[in-house]
Design brief:
It contains 10 helices and 13 strands. It has about 300 residues and is of the alpha/beta class. Helix 1 crosses helix 10 (about 285-295). It folds into 3 domains: about 5-60, OB fold (Dihydrolipoamide Acetyltransferase, E2P); about 65-225, P-loop containing nucleotide triphosphate hydrolases (Rossmann fold); about 245-295, Orthogonal Bundle (Ribonucleotide Reductase Protein R1, domain 1).
């Protein structure tokens, strides 16, 4: 229950137990989280109070709708990235090799976390029309399962207005590998934001936080944009092998026709998935991605 001297705020950046919060009066404060409250995440709604020494402390983290977490090979524990997300914007750079396996992992995470995924292909100014057509063909397996896709150039401001309309009235998290242009998209949407980022970064002596910590911005039409750290890998957690098919819409659809309810769709008799792959009703690349992720799950 909220106490009289407690107020609400949203976490716009978190550095362990210390974070930056934005109050209902749009004031940005540095706050420390009490151990009893737990570790705040970017996007959290929190209760805070001001102590007698003028120190701001977070006393409670309000219930979360969801969280985005990932595993990596260096740490056996999942790393929580952000909370209370409505939409995941998966950014791909068209002038680099597209990591389809990474896209599929993001899509599975979005499905199980309960937020909508969209795919944004950035840097279209760096390729010609023939190359763009080839990329569109390679990405058709995602449009076939109704994943929205947008082709943009943050540098040339092409497609930014459309992206803004898609992000309106939602809390969006921008994800992708380093170098795909996530921060360029944020800068294109809100060109005044880099100065604010640097100011907040310097005030917390975390000069490199733009590459290591998620950061929340307000965007037009009641939207919010969380710029997440660039990553090389995105390990899934809290999903078992029997559940994985639910993260692949087309596989889940055909799995209802499998002979055995606990079919993992590898080489079991009466498997409708392997049959659908051979009949080209399921994209082989998506199926191979499913098998690859399956091998990593307990």
């Amino acid at each position: 229950m909220q106490q009289k001297n407690q107020q609400t705020a949203i976490v716009i950046a978190s550095y362990g137990n210390q974070c930056k919060i934005e109050t209902t009066d749009n004031e940005i404060l540095t706050a420390k989280s009490l151990k009893t409250a737990g570790k705040p995440l970017c996007g959290d709604h929190v209760l805070y109070k001001t102590e007698a020494n003028n120190e701001t402390v977070i006393t409670d983290i309000l219930p979360r709708n969801n969280t985005l977490s990932r595993l990596n090979n260096l740490n056996p524990k999942p790393k929580q990235i952000a909370a209370n997300i409505d939409q995941m914007i998966i950014v791909i750079s068209v002038d680099h090799d597209i990591k389809f396996g990474l896209i599929d992992r993001y899509l599975v995470a979005a499905m199980f976390s309960g937020f909508k995924p969209i795919i944004v292909l950035n840097k279209i100014d760096k390729i010609n029309n023939e190359e763009l057509d080839a990329i569109k063909q390679s990405m058709k397996m995602y449009s076939d399962i109704d994943i929205p896709m947008y082709f943009i150039s943050a540098k040339m401001q092409s497609g930014i207005d459309t992206l803004l309309s898609v992000a309106a009235n939602k809390t969006n998290i921008v994800v992708g590998q380093s170098g795909v242009g996530k921060s360029s998209i944020v800068n294109a949407i809100l060109p005044e934001m880099p100065a604010l980022t640097k100011e907040i970064s310097d005030s917390t002596s975390k000069g490199k936080h733009t590459t290591t910590t998620a950061f929340l911005y307000h965007i037009p039409d009641n939207g919010q944009l969380i710029d997440s750290p660039g990553i090389r890998e995105f390990g899934l957690w809290n999903i078992n092998k029997k559940e994985l098919a639910q993260g692949f819409k087309e596989i889940q659809k055909f799995s209802e026709q499998c002979k055995f309810r606990d079919c993992l769709h590898i080489n079991e008799p009466g498997c409708a998935i392997t049959k659908a792959v051979k009949a080209q009703q399921i994209n082989p690349q998506r199926y191979n991605s499913y098998l690859s992720i399956l091998e990593t799950l307990e």
